[in-house]
Design brief:
The complex is a heterodimer of chains A (232) and B (184). Chain A is α/β, with parallel strands linked by helices and 232 residues long. Chain A contains 13 helices and eight strands. In chain A, helix 4 (49-57) packs across helix 5 (66-77), helix 6 (91-97) packs across helix 7 (113-125) and helix 11 (181-190) packs antiparallel against helix 12. Chain B has one domain (2-182). The chains are: A alpha/beta (232), B mainly alpha (184).
Chain lengths: 232, 184
């Protein structure tokens, strides 16, 4: 037991963030909550250089978006959010992911370099969690058959899934633990990390979850209500 | 490919000339679907132009303004030029003309519109959201249309896209995953 606690002190899991999740959290002024979670759980939050560009460097040049960018920049300056300085090679992931679904023999480019890089960094660092709020990358990893159904439903052209390429993709990326900003915030709530930003009431949690949802986190109202119904 | 683009450009031009808003919107939706399938930013740009032109036609303060007739004929002239460039297989000039039209739409709304959010930027968000709804990833939809990621997230959050597709793992299940990782 003592040994476990000893290691726990020094154990640092790495959580890789896609730009969609960081933007949702910062937009809702929940960066302080995330910072508390990082410190309390001694986990390292990491983003790729591409994500830093999309969520900090680029919006800093646009008046309308610079406030959010400054919130994220501060987390990097303070050191609890790390930017992976080394280039991440995402070519293989892009190539595999974008040759799974076909419309009349033409591959559908389903994911972009940004998402592929986050996934590549997860793999490279052997990280513990990939935090991603957008749903396509998550579905491609967790439920490709449902993604296929979705594509078939929306497109008028015939959509085909190349099973061999899907298998190659799944085998290359391996097991990926995916959470959304919604789960991070519920965990932060449980661990008392709302302190300094919000009071620790169920109402604060409810408001935070709905704010994340309405800022693009791929979570449904039903999921949120199901979860909240069990919160005392 | 080029014949598709010529046809699309001419359909936009004819629909705009005849003030056919329904057709312009339909073209815009068809083009973004095609653009998403082919990952083709030129088709996406044509979709944005078609969407924006429809929006302009729907705004009385724009179409009733004295300078509208001149603006409209300039845009029609540019669409005709773009189409002619394509027919002559001059793709670079065609793209330049599309950029010119996009810029024109942006400037018209900037000077005559009532909102600080530009109509052309709204078109990017709207059509990127469609591409995302079809199944493209968020960044792929951003890349295709040039939409801003933060604004797109906000727009998507206001739609029912994520309510129609429940994730196979709910909040509790994913939270348990975090608990395992946090070694609780």
């Amino acid at each position: 037991m003592k040994e476990k606690n000893y290691w726990k002190e020094y154990l640092m899991n790495e959580l890789i963030f896609d730009s969609s999740s960081i933007i949702s959290i910062a937009q809702n002024c929940l960066m302080k909550v995330l910072e508390n979670l990082s410190k309390k759980t001694k986990n390292q939050f990491v983003m790729t250089k591409g994500v830093e560009f999309e969520s900090v460097l680029k919006p800093l040049t646009i008046n309308k978006f610079e406030l959010n960018a400054l919130r994220i920049k501060r987390s990097i300056d303070l050191g609890w959010f790390k930017v992976e300085k080394n280039e991440v090679n995402s070519e293989k992931i892009e190539e595999l992911a974008n040759n799974i679904f076909f419309a009349e023999n033409t591959p559908i480019k389903i994911i972009h370099k940004g998402e592929a890089e986050a996934l590549a960094l997860y793999k490279k660092l052997n990280a513990s969690v990939l935090v991603i709020d957008e749903r396509t990358t998550r579905m491609l990893i967790e439920e490709p058959k449902n993604l296929e159904k979705k594509l078939k439903f929306h497109y008028r052209k015939k959509i085909k899934l190349n099973k061999a390429n899907l298998k190659k993709f799944s085998s290359f990326v391996g097991k990926v633990n995916i959470v959304r900003s919604a789960e991070l915030i519920t965990k932060a709530f449980d661990l008392g990390c709302f302190e300094g930003e919000l009071d620790s009431s169920k109402k604060s949690l409810e408001a935070s979850l709905f704010a994340l949802k309405f800022n693009g986190c791929a979570v449904s109202i039903e999921e949120i209500n199901d979860y909240l119904s069990a919160v005392k | 490919m080029i014949s598709d683009l010529v046809s699309a450009t001419e359909k936009i031009m004819n629909s705009f000339e005849s003030n056919d808003q329904v057709k312009l919107r339909q073209l815009s939706n068809d083009l973004i679907e095609e653009a998403a399938l082919k990952s083709d930013s030129v088709l996406a740009q044509l979709s944005l132009i078609s969407y924006s032109l429809q929006k302009m036609l729907s705004k009385p303060h724009i179409i009733e303004a004295g300078k509208w007739i001149k603006i409209k004929s300039t845009i029609i002239f540019s669409l005709k030029k773009a189409s002619d460039h394509l027919k002559n297989k001059n793709f670079n000039e065609f793209k330049k003309e599309l950029d010119h039209i996009s810029d024109k739409v942006f400037r018209v709304d900037a000077s005559m519109g009532h909102y600080t959010a530009n109509l052309y930027e709204k078109a990017k968000i709207k059509q990127a959201s469609r591409a995302y709804a079809f199944g493209l990833s968020l960044m792929q939809a951003v890349n295709l249309t040039g939409a801003n990621e933060k604004e797109l997230l906000f727009y998507i959050g206001g739609t029912k896209i994520h309510d129609k597709e429940k994730s196979i793992k709910g909040i509790n299940e994913r939270k348990k995953l975090l608990e395992g990782i946090f070694n609780e």
